[in-house]
Write a structure and sequence with these properties.
homodimer; about 230 residues; alpha+beta; Jelly Rolls; Arc Repressor Mutant, subunit A; 2 domains; four-stranded antiparallel beta sheet; 8 helices; 12 strands; about 25% strand; globular; DNA-binding
DNA sequence: CGCTCTATTGATAAACCTCAAATACAGTGG
DNA sequence: CCACTGTATTTGAGGTTTATCAATAGAGCG
């Protein structure tokens, strides 16, 4: 059974701090508080007042959103080096999503005054942030387009590919997605049900496109999946 | 027949320039080029290299996105005072969407160097931009949630309400949406087909929730629509 | 070995799309 | 003022996709 590789990472290489010197980053990191999370710990809840923003140093977070009836979608997985809640904090809003650790996770925390001061002192940070947010918005917009215009199996293919690119590691059999993914998770990430996901993955396993075990996916034929995701 | 009211507006009041003096804004606006668009003119195309960003001064833009098979969704309508393509330009990306004028529209244009200089000189602009982008991302995320978890008629209700809040004006009969909206437009904005929209609106018209004519919608009972959009 | 959580699979039903055809509407030019 | 043309809209019938429900099997853990 493949366990997740420990990714070597340092905050200095995070996109947020691009353009700053190592010393500057070290100072900023010192100003932040550290938090350690266990799997299933909630970092923040949708609806809570947004007091802090977070940089993931190790581990992974799952960002989800609930509607009034309690149905859930997964908006994104946050991997090391990525920031979350950066902007909510600036607007004095409630967090629009919930963040839950899905493995042992270390985060660095800044509160709003720290963020504001940071950005005023180093305008590059605000500009970097803009770039990061743009990538997020592009990601959601693409997924919005997909969910509006494509069939479920295409969307499931795109979901797997997206997760593979974000958190894939090579193995002899293919590319392993280093995130524990239940059928329900994939469904919440693709806008469908676990039953449909199960049927679809079974079919792909027969075709030799993927291998899957309990909460584990290996993409054995990425090219076929890409092809399928684009043409149906 | 109701025509769109001419909304009185000045760039100085745009959220982008919050925190700047009137004189500063006047200088910035002077640095930008002006463009005048007729209905159906394309301001920029999805896939074109993003050279400029735009502030709408008068009129309305429709932002759309196409998938590989040519199916379209409407992501957003841009109304006076709003910026578009601000971030794409920073990343040297291609525009991720297409912007089309749906009425006579005036925009102010800045290119990338101007934007960068602007933000370096006035960090508040970058921070304001972050706030604006956050609202956009929140909007798309909400719509993503809706399209993943809700039924078409609920989504159509939410679409009408969203458009009503963004571009509604009071009339004796109810709140008129000041955007020409065909059934197809509403479908593209809700992730469904024009047929379903037509049937749904007919039903609501019988219930007295809306009145509709050719490309015109008046919401006569917003409360009922809200109620319906939340409970199904 | 039993408990719990996850995954599979079949049968059924509901929601929604697609296609086809008819109707309504606005604008144009005679 | 009217006929004509090009859209927009409505409505019905039929089919497909996908969700839902139910029951079973499998995996991991103590």
């Amino acid at each position: 059974m493949a366990t997740n590789p420990q990714i070597s990472y340092s905050p200095h290489r995070s996109e947020v701090f691009k353009g700053l010197t190592g010393e500057q980053v070290a100072n900023l990191v010192k100003e932040g508080r550290r938090i350690k999370l266990e799997p299933k710990n909630i970092l923040f809840h949708q609806g809570d007042p947004a007091k802090n923003c977070f940089l993931v140093n190790r581990g992974r977070l799952k960002l989800t959103k609930l509607n009034e009836q309690g149905k859930e979608v997964i908006l994104r997985y946050i991997v090391p080096g990525e920031l979350t809640a950066a902007t909510a904090v600036l607007k004095n809003w409630a967090y629009p999503v919930t963040a839950e650790a899905i493995e042992e996770t270390d985060v660095i925390v800044w509160d709003k005054p720290a963020m504001m001061q940071l950005m005023r002192r180093y305008p590059d940070i605000a500009i970097n942030l803009l770039g990061i947010i743009l990538e997020r918005i592009d990601d959601v917009q693409n997924r919005y387009l997909e969910v509006c215009t494509e069939h479920v199996d295409q969307r499931i293919a795109r979901s797997l590919l997206r997760l593979m690119r974000r958190a894939g590691s090579k193995t002899p059999e293919g590319i392993h997605i280093d995130i524990p993914l239940s059928r329900q998770n994939i469904a919440d990430y693709s806008g469908t049900t676990l039953y449909t996901v199960s049927r679809t993955l079974s079919a792909w396993e027969k075709k030799g496109w993927i291998q899957s075990g309990r909460e584990q996916i290996i993409v054995t034929d990425p090219h076929a999946l890409v092809q399928f995701s684009e043409t149906g």
